[in-house]
């Protein structure tokens, strides 16, 4: 039959698997694209089949094609189909394809939520694993929100394989759904101490990533990480932690001090280069964060530099590279220690490896001084000549410019040399950085007045030389320098030796091949040049020559008028008309030079790039306010985009201007001047440039000094920077001789020089070298009262900003992970409560470890502090390593804070004594090892110090007492540890299953509560078909799915593999809440193991206490007082004897179990408040006597109050 | 974070590409080309770090690569990763491949890119290092293969047999088999693991 034949061939087609596809592609090298498109057609056919194996095979092939660059997003739905296959083999193929091609924009991705949830809770760990792996690649905000809770449950999975994956993926979840960070963080933190090293390393990984972006939120974890660092032997974990510390130390210098010793030890002990390198890196970070003036850290710096030198000298290029990289970090704060290795770094410049050369270049930046700048640049120039690749050459070029121009040309002693270097650099062909050179030329010529004559001569020869213009045709960036050259020659034309020749050069026909913006500058500056030539010639009474120049202009300008560039055309035609007018006047013998040069009178001052932004908004001026009434919301005007509106207005104004006559203008100008004079906000510092030039009060105070004549003003031919190096040496030599003679005179001179510059700590040897030209660097103009802030580099779109979340704040009720909703349960359950058992475990662990600590430190004060679960960072940081002095380090938060603010100040005042002490303690420790002979001296100091300490200690204890008296506003006052509490109580338990439950009420539902039941499989069987049923009472009923009768049970929406626990939620409706309720119920399920399945059931009694209807509601004391005064409340009271628990814990207990909040607390008396879901107010006054507690309650309902007090009595009785 | 993992051969043909940030297929190909261009022009005995992949990441990112016989293994990472650590990770990756494929060569990667992906997934997840212990990785891979086999009972694939036949086919063609992993044992290592 034909059908059979067709089927057979189709089968054959399906036979093609990934390997066949790959082989096929390899065999069709000539027509690969055609072959692949044929294969894609086949795949499309295969995807239409119902057979999942065929589909999976097709998707597998698609994944391969995706790697080759083919878009496979059209198959997204099929990929999801394969993902939901029951067989692991296919599922894995599906998830792999999804991870390769799904992204946030994939629309079908929302269909995956349930499938992924199912896979996450699959009994097979590999199903779960593969789902987690896939999800990590394509998680979206929606998926993150919907699955966050499921993943969090997996973080406590029994299998470490799942735990580590769940922990790791949380980072992606946080990124996509920042709200999940706080609820999930406690568990994540707990995983730092997971018994499995893989899980631990994953947790470290995630926290390191988080902390790298927002380090300050993770400072409180420093003690924990410190412990890990000193105990872990896993180098991968160590590297991560050490890197993390590198990010934390800048925020907390005290942390750095604590770190130095263990890090130094690691540096000495480790054999793993990677670990050594990261240690060195972090020590560097620590040293940077500490003030550089600390002498006792020079040893650490030396150690780092020395280790780095070993790395750099290593034959392994990788180590060499990293050594240089780390060296550049030290350079910023400790340039001197790096400078001593100049030889090594210069050597690296000759390395064959470009990466290494680039790193060495970075270092050079910090190694230059006045003394060696010329030498270093000379070396770089030879490299420029040798360099083959343009990228490296361009890098060299930018580095040369960076090095020379750094900190306001601090190291340049001879600007003629620098200009020559710049001119030499213009010989580079094919560089992209022409504009950089141009910018430097302009900057130097404008700001260094003394150099202008020389600069102009050099620039005119640049304009004259043909090579730049011709090379422009090759789309070459270097012609940019002509822009600078033309402008400098035009602007400072008075310095030109042969202006006529330069003018000719600028009017050459070849110029028109230059880019438009350069031509435009040419045109503009030709006129400047023309103006100055006219003036010269008129002064010399050479009328004929002047006319000749004019004639030249009239002849040559039309070539620019024809330019395709608008700007050039406009300027040229404008100027051409002007020159023609001049020509007419010249013909009549009228002197015109004055007027023409008046066009360009005045000096242009450099303006700081940020000046405009920094103009402060005058007080009382609201830039957002409407000047006129906003336009009415009428049709057409409203639709116009704003920009167009503005634009038109401007144009309009421009058009109108010429209409105003001279007189009117003058009048307005006068008025404006008057107004400006009276306006205190007007920036008066900038009078018109012309005026300034004439009055020159600003210029006069800058002493312009004669140029040292030992340097030739004009170097014949192209300048050779090398000549300057020699000359400079001679000059310096002469200077040295002179210096001996005229020491006093020189001092004076130096003072001036220093004053003018923005000098930053020149080295001693530097100071000996006086610059060749006394150069005045004109600083850039800034508006008066400019705002100093530099807040412009914050990127509001940074995805990591959303994760800048305070993690130390206790969780609020509203912070919950959304949970898969069970039917109509609208009150979502807070996982934060689910966390509680976790928190319990966590707080126990550190306690144990601390006990060991305790034996070492008997200090009373410390004992008290210690119980803060090591969370008290300040305490931890201020604890010094085993004390060098017998005086216990007095450390409290308050004093600790001072240490943060004044770590470096060698300061006065008794408060500030403390931080210094801490420094010293570290010092002591280190010095004890290194040098014992200093001890005597120290002892003396110690004695003095200990006196101070006693003083401060006293003060501090006073302070402590004071705080104790202060009313505490919240139940969670800090002095004592709150014992672990769980709101989950045992519901029922048998050999199969354990049920714990908690009831949550919500303000939105006044007659509904949600019961969350954690079901924990305690057996080795697989539990399924779980169903929960309750006998409803008149008052309290379980919500059941629509259509089911009151006797039907509600199925539990999951199954439980052995050892797994999960949580289910059930909604109950209640009518009256004034009395506690008990409901009987049963959980039925099937337990399945190797021997078969059995039906099992477990009975329970569900207690609805009145406390569970209360909702923690904060209340202010004034509102509380009013409520008590109102007299609408009935009263009742109880008293419980024999409580030993501290008042603080007592309050915490009431807050936690009965949902109250503390309104006010004074000594051992506190007022508390809560509210029921039906709006009853409940006020309590709790008093603690010697051995008893009394609770007075007021409530709008008497029955509710008595029920509540009964419950409370039970709670308190346990205390 | 690891931003991308690429494997390509001496001619720039991709053998595996894994991006941990979404890019369009075109951009992915461009990145592979650019990376190949950067990496392939470097000498054998220069350092294994490269800055300045323009397409991927920014200044914070680095390319860390190793070259084994015919293949380049390139990891694009940001500054939170330790450079030497990643070099070691590449080493672990290659050694794991060698164990799973038994004397791995380029052909294995060509024909079994899915398996390579699966191995990689046990080492790096969502751009973060998941596991660095080779034995652990191999154990998990073996367990998954076993699971796959148990599902495939009665299946006709018989993939291992086929696999070997592919190799010999290739051998015939080139007359040579270059086990790149063999080279990795010779390479000098900074060594994270003590």
Walkthrough of the structure:
- The complex is a heterodimer of chains A (1215) and B (194).
- Chain A is elongated, with a radius of gyration of 41 Å.
- In chain A, 55% of the residues lie in helices and 10% in strands.
- In chain A, β13 and β14 (1177-1184) form a beta hairpin.
- With 1215 residues, chain A is of the alpha+beta class.
- Chain B has 194 residues and is of the alpha+beta class.
- Chain B has 7 helices and 7 strands.
- In chain B, a hairpin with a 2-residue loop joins β4 (62-68) and β5.
- The radius of gyration of chain B is 17 Å and the shape is globular.
- The relative contact order of chain B is 0.15.
- Residues 154-165, 170-177 and 183-194 of chain B have low confidence and may be disordered.
- Classes of the chains: A alpha+beta (1215), B alpha+beta (194).
Task: Summarize it.
The complex is a heterodimer of chains A (1215) and B (194). In chain A, 55% of the residues lie in helices and 10% in strands. With 1215 residues, chain A is α+β, with helices and mostly antiparallel strands.
Key terms for this structure?
heterodimer; A: 1215 residues; alpha+beta; B: 194 residues; 5-stranded antiparallel sheet; 7 helices; 7 strands; globular; disordered C terminus
List the helices and strands and how they pair.
The complex is a heterodimer of chains A (1215) and B (194).
Chain A: H1 2-14, H2 18-27, H3 32-48, H4 52-67, H5 76-83, H6 88-101, H7 113-120, H8 125-138, H9 141-154, H10 160-176, H11 181-190, H12 197-213, H13 222-231, H14 235-248, H15 253-269, H16 273-289, H17 298-313, H18 317-333, H19 335-339, H20 342-349, H21 354-367, H22 373-386, H23 390-409, H24 415-425, H25 434-447, H26 452-464, H27 467-471, H28 480-491, H29 499-506, H30 516-539, H31 543-556, H32 558-561, H33 566-587, H34 593-598, H35 611-614, H36 635-639, H37 642-656, H38 662-678, H39 689-695, H40 697-700, H41 721-741, H42 743-756, H43 764-767, H44 831-856, H45 860-866, H46 873-878, H47 893-901, H48 913-930, H49 935-965, E1 985-989, E2 993-1002, E3 1005-1017, E4 1022-1030, E5 1036-1038, E6 1050-1051, E7 1061-1070, E8 1077-1089, E9 1092-1104, E10 1110-1111, H50 1117-1125, E11 1130-1137, H51 1143-1154, E12 1157-1162, E13 1165-1172, E14 1177-1184, E15 1188-1195, H52 1198-1213
Antiparallel strand pairs in A: 1-2, 2-3, 3-7, 4-6, 4-8, 5-7, 8-9, 10-13, 11-15, 12-13, 13-14, 14-15
Helix pairs in contact in A: 2-3, 3-4, 4-5, 4-6, 5-6, 6-8, 7-9, 8-10, 9-10, 10-12, 11-44, 12-14, 13-14, 14-16, 15-16, 16-17, 16-18, 17-18, 18-21, 20-21, 21-23, 22-23, 24-25, 24-26, 24-41, 25-28, 26-28, 26-29, 28-30, 29-30, 30-31, 30-33, 31-33, 48-49, 51-52
Chain B: E1 2-9, E2 14-19, H1 25-40, E3 49-51, E4 62-68, E5 71-77, H2 83-101, H3 106-111, H4 113-121, E6 124-125, E7 128-129, H5 134-151, H6 159-174, H7 180-186
Antiparallel strand pairs in B: 1-2, 1-5, 3-4, 4-5, 6-7
Helix pairs in contact in B: 2-5, 2-7
């Amino acid at each position: 039959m034909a059908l059979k034949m067709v089927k057979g061939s189709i089968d054959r087609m399906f036979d093609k698997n990934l390997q066949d596809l790959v082989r096929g592609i390899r065999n069709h090298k000539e027509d690969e694209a055609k072959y692949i498109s044929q294969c894609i057609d086949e795949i499309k056919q295969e995807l239409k089949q119902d057979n999942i194996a065929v589909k999976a095979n097709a998707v597998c092939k698609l994944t391969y094609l995706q790697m080759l660059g083919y878009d496979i997003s059209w198959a997204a739905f099929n990929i999801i189909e394969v993902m939901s296959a029951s067989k692991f083999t296919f599922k894995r193929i599906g998830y792999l394809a999804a991870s390769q091609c799904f992204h946030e924009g994939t629309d079908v991705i929302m269909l995956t939520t349930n499938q992924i949830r199912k896979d996450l809770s699959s009994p097979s760990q590999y199903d779960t694993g593969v789902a987690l792996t896939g999800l990590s690649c394509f998680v979206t905000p929606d998926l993150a929100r919907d699955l966050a809770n499921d993943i969090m449950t997996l973080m406590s999975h029994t299998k470490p394989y799942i735990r580590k994956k769940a922990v790791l993926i949380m980072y992606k979840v946080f990124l996509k759904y920042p709200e999940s960070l706080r609820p999930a963080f406690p568990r994540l933190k707990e995983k730092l101490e997971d018994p499995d090293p893989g899980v631990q390393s994953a947790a470290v990984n995630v926290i390191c990533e988080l902390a790298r972006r927002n380090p300050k939120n993770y400072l409180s974890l420093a003690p924990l990480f410190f412990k890990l660092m000193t105990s872990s032997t896993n180098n991968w974990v160590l590297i991560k932690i050490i890197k993390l510390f590198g990010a934390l130390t800048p925020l907390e210098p005290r942390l750095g001090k604590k770190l130095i010793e263990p890090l130094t030890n690691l540096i000495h002990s480790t054999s793993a280069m990677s670990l050594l390198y990261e240690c060195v890196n972090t020590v560097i970070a620590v040293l940077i964060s500490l003030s550089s003036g600390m002498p006792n850290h020079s040893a650490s710096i030396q150690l780092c530099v020395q280790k780095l030198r070993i790395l750099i000298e290593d034959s392994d290029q990788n180590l060499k590279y990293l050594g240089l990289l780390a060296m550049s970090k030290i350079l910023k704060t400790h340039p001197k220690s790096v400078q001593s290795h100049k030889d090594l770094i210069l050597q690296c410049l000759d390395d064959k490896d470009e990466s290494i050369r680039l790193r060495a270049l970075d270092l050079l930046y910090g190694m230059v001084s006045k003394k060696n700048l010329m030498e270093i640049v000379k070396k770089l120039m030879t490299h420029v000549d040798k360099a083959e690749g343009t990228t490296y050459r361009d890098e060299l070029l930018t580095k040369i410019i960076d090095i020379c121009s750094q900190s306001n040309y601090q190291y340049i002693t001879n600007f003629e040399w620098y200009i020559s270097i710049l001119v030499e650099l213009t010989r580079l062909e094919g560089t992209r950085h022409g504009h950089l050179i141009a910018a430097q030329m302009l900057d130097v010529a404008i700001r260094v007045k003394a150099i202008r004559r020389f600069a102009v001569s050099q620039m005119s020869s640049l304009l004259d030389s043909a090579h730049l213009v011709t090379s422009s045709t090759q789309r070459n960036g270097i012609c940019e320098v002509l822009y600078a050259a033309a402008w400098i020659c035009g602007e400072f034309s008075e310095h030109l030796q042969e202006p006529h020749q330069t003018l000719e050069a600028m009017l050459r026909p070849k110029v028109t091949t230059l880019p438009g913006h350069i031509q435009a500058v040419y045109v503009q500056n030709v006129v400047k040049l023309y103006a100055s030539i006219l003036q010269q010639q008129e002064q010399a009474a050479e009328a004929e020559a002047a006319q000749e120049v004019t004639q030249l202009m009239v002849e040559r300008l039309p070539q620019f008028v024809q330019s395709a560039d608008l700007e050039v055309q406009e300027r040229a035609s404008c100027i051409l008309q002007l020159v023609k007018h001049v020509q007419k006047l010249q013909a009549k013998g009228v002197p015109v030079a004055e007027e023409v040069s008046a066009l360009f009178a005045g000096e242009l001052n450099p303006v700081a790039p940020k000046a405009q932004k920094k103009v402060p908004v005058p007080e009382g001026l609201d830039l957002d306010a409407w000047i006129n009434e906003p336009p009415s919301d009428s049709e057409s005007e409203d639709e116009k985009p704003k920009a167009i509106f503005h634009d038109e207005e401007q144009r309009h104004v421009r058009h109108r201007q010429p209409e105003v006559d001279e007189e009117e203008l003058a009048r307005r100008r006068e008025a404006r001047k008057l107004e400006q004079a009276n306006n205190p906000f007007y920036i008066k510092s900038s009078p018109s440039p012309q005026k300034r030039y004439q009055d020159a009060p600003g210029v006069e105070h800058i002493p312009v000094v004669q140029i040292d004549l030992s340097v030739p003003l004009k170097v014949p031919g192209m300048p050779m920077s090398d000549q300057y190096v020699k000359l400079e040496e001679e000059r310096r030599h002469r200077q040295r001789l002179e210096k001996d003679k005229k020491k006093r005179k020189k001092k004076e001179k130096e003072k001036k020089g220093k004053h003018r510059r923005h000098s930053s700590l020149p080295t001693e040897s530097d100071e000996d070298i006086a610059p060749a030209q006394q150069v005045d660097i004109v600083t850039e103009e800034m508006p008066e009262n400019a705002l100093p802030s530099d807040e412009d580099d914050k990127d509001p779109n940074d995805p990591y900003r959303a994760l800048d979340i305070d993690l130390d704040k206790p969780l609020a009720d509203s912070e919950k992970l959304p949970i898969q909703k069970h039917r109509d349960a609208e009150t979502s359950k807070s996982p934060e409560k689910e966390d509680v058992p976790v928190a319990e475990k966590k707080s126990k662990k550190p306690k144990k470890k601390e006990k060991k600590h305790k034996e070492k430190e008997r200090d009373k004060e410390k004992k008290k502090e210690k119980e803060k679960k090591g969370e008290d960072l300040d305490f931890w940081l201020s604890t010094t390593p085993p004390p060098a002095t017998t005086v216990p380090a007095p450390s409290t938060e308050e004093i600790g804070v001072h240490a943060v603010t004044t770590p470096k100040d060698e300061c006065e005042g008794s408060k500030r004594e403390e931080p210094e002490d801490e420094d010293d303690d570290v010092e002591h420790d280190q010095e004890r090892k290194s040098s014992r002979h200093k001890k005597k001296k120290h002892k003396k100091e110690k004695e003095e110090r200990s006196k101070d300490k006693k003083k401060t200690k006293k003060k501090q204890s006073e302070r402590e007492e004071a705080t104790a008296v202060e009313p505490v506003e919240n139940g969670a006052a800090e002095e004592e540890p709150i014992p672990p509490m769980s709101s989950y109580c045992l519901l029922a338990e048998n050999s199969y299953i354990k049920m714990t439950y908690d009831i949550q009420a919500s303000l939105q539902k006044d007659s509904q509560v949600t019961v969350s039941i954690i079901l924990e499989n305690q057996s080795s069987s697989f539990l399924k078909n779980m169903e929960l049923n309750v006998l409803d009472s008149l008052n309290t009923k379980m919500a059941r799915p629509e259509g089911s009768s009151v006797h039907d049970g509600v199925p539990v929406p999951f199954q439980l593999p052995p050892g797994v626990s999960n949580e289910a939620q059930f909604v109950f409706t209640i009518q009256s809440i004034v009395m506690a309720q008990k409901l009987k119920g049963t959980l039925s399920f099937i337990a399945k193991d190797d021997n078969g399945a059995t039906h099992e059931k477990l009975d329970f009694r569900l207690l609805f206490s009145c406390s569970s209807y209360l909702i923690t509601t904060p209340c202010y004391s004034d509102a509380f007082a009013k409520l008590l005064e109102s007299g609408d409340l009935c009263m009742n009271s109880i008293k419980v004897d024999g409580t030993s628990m501290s008042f603080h814990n007592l309050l915490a207990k009431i807050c936690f179990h009965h949902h109250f909040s503390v309104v006010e607390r004074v000594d051992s008396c506190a007022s508390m408040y809560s509210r029921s879901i039906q709006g009853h107010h409940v006020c309590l006054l709790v008093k603690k006597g010697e051995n008893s507690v009394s609770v007075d309650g007021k409530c709008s309902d008497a029955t509710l109050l008595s029920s509540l007090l009964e419950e409370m009595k039970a709670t308190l009785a346990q205390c | 974070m690891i931003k991308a993992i690429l494997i390509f051969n001496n001619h720039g043909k991709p053998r595996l590409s894994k991006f941990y940030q979404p890019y369009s297929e075109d951009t992915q190909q461009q990145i592979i080309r650019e990376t190949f261009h950067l990496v392939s022009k470097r000498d054998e005995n220069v350092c294994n770090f490269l800055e300045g992949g323009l397409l991927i990441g920014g200044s914070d990112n680095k390319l860390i690569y190793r070259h084994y016989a015919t293949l380049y293994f390139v990891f694009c990472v940001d500054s939170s990763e330790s450079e030497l650590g990643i070099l070691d990770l590449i080493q672990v990756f290659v050694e794991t491949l060698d164990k799973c494929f038994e004397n791995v060569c380029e052909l294995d990667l060509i024909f079994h890119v899915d398996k390579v992906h699966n191995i990689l997934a046990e080492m790096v997840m969502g751009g973060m290092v998941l596991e660095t212990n080779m034995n652990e990785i191999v154990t998990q891979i073996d367990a998954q293969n076993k699971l796959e086999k148990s599902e495939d009972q009665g299946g006709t694939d018989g993939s291992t047999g086929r696999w070997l036949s592919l190799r010999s086919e290739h051998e015939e063609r080139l007359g040579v088999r270059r086990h790149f992993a063999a080279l990795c044992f010779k390479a000098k290592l900074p060594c994270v693991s003590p």
